[in-house]
Amino acid sequence: MKPLAMKPLKIGNIELASPIVLAPMAGVTNAPFRTLCREFASGLMYVNEMVMATALVHGSAKTERMVTFAPDESPRSLQLYGSDPVMLARAVTKLCENDIVDHIDMNFGCPVAKVTRKGGGAAVPAKPNLLRAIMRGAVKAAAPYGIPVTAKFRIGIDEDLITYLHTGLIAEEEGIASIALHARTAEQHYSGTARWDTIAELKQAVTSIPVLGNGDIWTASDALRMIEATGCDGVVIGRGCLGRPWLFADLVAAFSGGEVLPPRNLGFVVEVMKRHVRSLAEHFGADDVGSTRGVRDFRKHVSWYLTGFPVGGEIRHRLATADSILAIDDLLDEMVSIHGSHLTVVEGGEYLRRGKTSGPIRVALPDGYRGCLNDMVVPDDNDVMAISGG
Question: Residues 6, 255: contact at Cβ < 8 Å?
């Protein structure tokens, strides 16, 4: 693919060096991960994991711990979700008047059952008047502080309830600064192929604010193809950067006409893994059993970092059950000594999917959102949120 001369992206009063946004992903895009991404490419928008507006308003300690930014982080970006316009506006006001954020994204795409069954996430666009009220309230609450509000959403609930065009048009009318479309329905969850043609249709319909595309961007060349195929104004990166925070450097290079480096070797990846686990350990602190939550949190990243590397399942399992930084260091050093620091991913390994691939699903909706549902299973997401902000 030929490089594109992409212009900087303006979202309200925020100008990004390149039109690239990190998607909010629950349990992933915390301060340590965002800092790691910024080491590879600064001047972009790295969005914190989504938080519940109601919990934020009521002062939930767990929620407030999630709203954490590095001292030098700019812009400070956060995603909110909920289904109560008043509560969402109050959450926006709280964030703005306390100078906590520089940008707020609204989640209208999360397919997780614990969110949609309460009318939040991907369920909201099924109620256009509710959607409009939420957007209007959030924009009005943020306006006195000069904080731009954006929105991320999906194609719709399923093929029988497509909502993305009216969602985009309502956003444009209500003063939303930019919109992003994950080109799947909620029913698709994370299965199948993202339908980039819907991004092109949304871009044609919404003309006064930036339209960003999301879905199936695994490499820089994927991003170039999306831009060329859809004409969208920028890209939102979700699962493609799991275990590859350096993908943002590749994207910046591709968009500026620079050289995109080949897939990184094992030695490079291991050094990033070591920095990541230490950052998580420092972020979460030690617990009362001598381990750290940070080490435990890092375990889910192991398989993403090692995707495509032919290092065997045994070392992956041991890394995924390690209980200390020292144990992880020893195992990583052992892996490098066996396979060599110059080991590269298998052919095409950089295109291998990371994160959730589940679906299709039956979408859990509140009573009255439509007359009937199909017979597919509603997943139980009470314990584990999907790693996505929609």
Answer: yes
